[in-house]
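The protein record quoted for completeness.
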Amino acid sequence: MNTLSGTAPIPPLSHNPVLRVPPAAPAEAAAYFGASLAFHADVSDVAAALAAGGDPGFVVLDSRSAPSWDQGHVPGAMHLPTARIAAEAARLLDPAVPVITYCWGPGCNGGTRAALALARLGYRVKEMLGGIEYWIREGFETETRRGRERRDADPLTAPAGTSDCGC
């Protein structure tokens, strides 16, 4: 039997690229995915919390540049580019209120960098997965200098005719 000292048997290498590295044990998977939810927020969940009215219990922070912000942002979001967080966060943010950061989209780690900068300053923070790209792709309203805008939802990211993806 192929084992390491004191561990379970090592599964044989798979020719299947999906299982070449076997899935984690259920307890390890539960810890990982639970932790992931502590660090990330879904755009649909953020939109639903904001649409419910009243205080959602968090502030949304757009970490992009001024021209990007002007092009369109989550309505009600705060604009604080990552480079200015260290100098301005204490003046603008309440440390008792969690912050949801975002940037362009899944190909950009600006929201992650903003979340890291805030966490290092002692803020509780999550990153909004998909950023403004997925906010727009799911058909949620954006705010620009021209006012509010909404595009049709991309059927690849959101079901047509409903705001509930069933996740």
Notes: Residues 59 and 93 are 8 Å apart (CA to CA). The mean pLDDT is 90.
